[in-house]
UniProtKB/TrEMBL annotation:
Subcellular localization, as worded in the UniProt entry: Membrane
Signal peptide: 1-19
UniProt-recorded name of the protein: Leucine-rich repeat-containing protein 19
Top-level lineage group: Eukaryota
Record's keyword annotation contains Metal-binding: no
GO MF annotation, one: signaling receptor activity
Keywords of the record: Glycoprotein, Leucine-rich repeat, Membrane, Repeat, Signal, Transmembrane, Transmembrane helix
GO cellular component: plasma membrane
Length: 370
């Protein structure tokens, strides 16, 4: 009797477990749109979709695509393999807080903006393999607090700083042209001291310099000088203090610039005053010239008296010699008029002393003196 009661007592518990499992299977909605030659993410997909595969299309993840993705907030897996994505913009997956797997391999991604993965707090697996990524800032992965797998295989990365990923378990880095200089020492120390596993360690090789090509990035031997470049705790403290001092200096300089900018109108008023004074001076000078110019012009025109040159006298006499008939055309006059005319004609005759006689001398007074 007691044995019969036990199943009855646990029956509600079994029913609850079964209902949860059935509910889990019911909420998983898969949609496959591979090789459909889509240029945009379809907007007519069931809003309750949880697994969406859009691989092998022409999707670029532009602004229109990111706005459409916001509608599918129940997504847990998103596959965009071999599309036409070149840039991951800020907030590309902002509303996909349930996303756990994101695969964007085999695209042409060369730029990942700082906030590209904002909102992906539950993401566990990120695949960025076989793209054209040259460099990555470790701050890009800060929003991925639960990331466990990071695949960067087959890119163009030569240097990679230690990412701030506390829960990371597996990282894939082979197929990149690693430069095993001193700058890569931090990454090597992180791979050797943390719990993160480097997949395909034996083929994750150095590409530069040539003498280290036979070494894995995890086992490459570094010289003592590289270790001396690593910042010690004291050095880090000094760097922090120096940065704080630099920031204070920058702030004080900024305040000085602000004060100077506030004094700017004073300088402009001085410039305006100088401009007004110069305008008044130039205007006064022009007015003075306008008043005096007619007077100067009349004085210059009225000054005509000058000594005649010898060639001018000869020319004047030759003109009269060549036209003697002009005297015959003079009408009948008395003897005094004839004398005056004769004297006027010979007023420019050259004397024996070599001087030229001025025509302005009164000839009547000259005759009386003679």
């Amino acid at each position: 009797m007691k044995a019969a009661r036990i199943p009855i007592l646990f029956w509600p518990f079994f029913m609850l477990v079964l209902s949860d499992e059935s509910q889990t299977f019911k909420t998983e909605v898969k949609r496959n749109f591979t090789k459909q030659n889509y240029y945009l993410i379809p907007a007519d997909i069931n809003k309750e979709v949880t697994i969406l595969d859009l691989s092998y299309n022409q999707i670029t993840l532009n602004i229109t695509d990111t706005s459409i993705l916001q509608m599918y907030y129940l997504l847990t897996e998103l596959y965009l393999i071999e599309n036409s994505v070149t840039i991951l913009y800020n907030n590309s997956f902002g509303n996909l807080s349930n996303l756990q797997i994101l695969n964007i391999c085999q695209n042409s991604i060369h730029t990942i903006q700082q906030g590209a993965f904002t909102g992906l707090t539950t993401l566990k697996q990120l695949y960025l393999c076989q793209n054209k990524i040259l460099q990555l800032s470790p701050d890009i992965f800060v929003p991925l607090k639960n990331l466990k797998l990071l695949n960067l295989q087959g890119n163009l990365i030569s240097y990679f700083d230690v990412p701030q990923l506390l829960h990371l378990e597996l990282i894939v880095l082979h197929g990149n042209p690693w430069n095993c200089s001193c700058n890569l020492l931090n990454l090597q120390n992180w791979l050797n001291t943390s719990n993160v596993k480097l997949e395909n360690e034996n083929i994750t090789m150095c590409s530069y310099p040539d003498k280290l090509k036979c070494y894995s990035i995890k086992t490459v031997p570094y010289k003592a000088e590289c270790y001396s470049k690593l910042p010690s705790p004291i050095t880090e403290d000094l760097q922090i203090n120096f940065q704080s001092i630099s920031n204070s200096t920058f702030n004080s300089s900024l305040n000085n610039l602000t004060r100077n900018s506030e004094r700017g109108p004073l300088g402009k008023s001085w410039a305006f005053l100088v401009g007004v004074v110069m305008t008044v001076l130039v205007t006064s000078l022009l007015i003075f010239i306008a008043i005096k110019l007619p007077i100067w012009y009349n004085s210059l025109i009225s000054y005509k008296h000058h000594h005649l040159e010898e060639h001018e006298v000869e020319t004047y006499e030759d003109g009269f010699t060549q036209n003697p008939s002009s005297l015959s055309q003079i009408p009948d006059t008395n003897s005094e008029d004839t004398t005056v005319i004769f004297e006027q004609l010979h007023s420019f005759v050259v004397d024996d002393d070599g001087f030229i006689e001025d025509k302005y001398i009164d000839t009547h007074e000259l005759c009386k003196e003679n």
